[in-house]
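Quick one: structure for this chain?
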Amino acid sequence: MTTAQHPLSGNRILCLGMDPMPKSALQKDWLECYENHLELFDLLEVKPKWVKLNLAFFMRWGRLGIDKLEHACEALSGQSFLLLDGKFGEIGNSLNQYLEFAFDHLGVDGVTVNPFMGEHIIGSALQKALSIRGESARVFVLGATSEFPQNKLAAFQHSYSAIAEACEETHLALDPSGALASQVGLVVGANRADALSHATLKNGKLPLLMPGVGAQGVTLTQAISLTRDLSQEIILPVSRGICEGGNLKPIEMKLRFESMQSELETLTSNSRRNS
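Got it. Here's what it folds into:
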């Protein structure tokens, strides 16, 4: 990192989400939302440790969107770690193309992946990430998502324990010393109290990417309370709750982000004193 960053609030990290989404379907409005996100980043004196870019909000705009995604990655690289949220999951050859795009072409530090097609998803993504990004590499595997299936597919929402075990087995297979444990983690929604209280997460060291704070209805206070028994690193991405798709003025988004960062530091400090 080349710029100052917030000291870790314990090991709870606020991540800035970049999901430009205008209120209209006009390209010029999307460009304004995109530029507002970049200006917000420039305004922050202390840069967030992680920035999460959701691929869908760029692909929506075709060639223009991909061009701006490339530009954002180039502009932010070296100031924050970059996580491309694409939820990749494919057969080996196809998966490798997604990973080449993320790590080789864009130069991001981490990705999200979908393990539906098997353990090779986790292993391939982690190997590619490590080979290119080294110690900064992160792979977050969908585990217990904030939106989850119902009815005939409901069983999927209870598979997080097996997925967590697969993550642990994958990094141990690559390095029996366990040194890679912090580089592969699980996506667990902030509204998934069932998963956050499960013994597999309490006993494990897998870092968590925990969306759902803000616009999806979970407060920071609730998130810190739900994770008080977890010792691993937890990254809390916030986007809509701060930026509203980039439809606000950058200075207003800056004040919101800094206010949430301050709240997180206070909550984690209080949690440590009370533990």
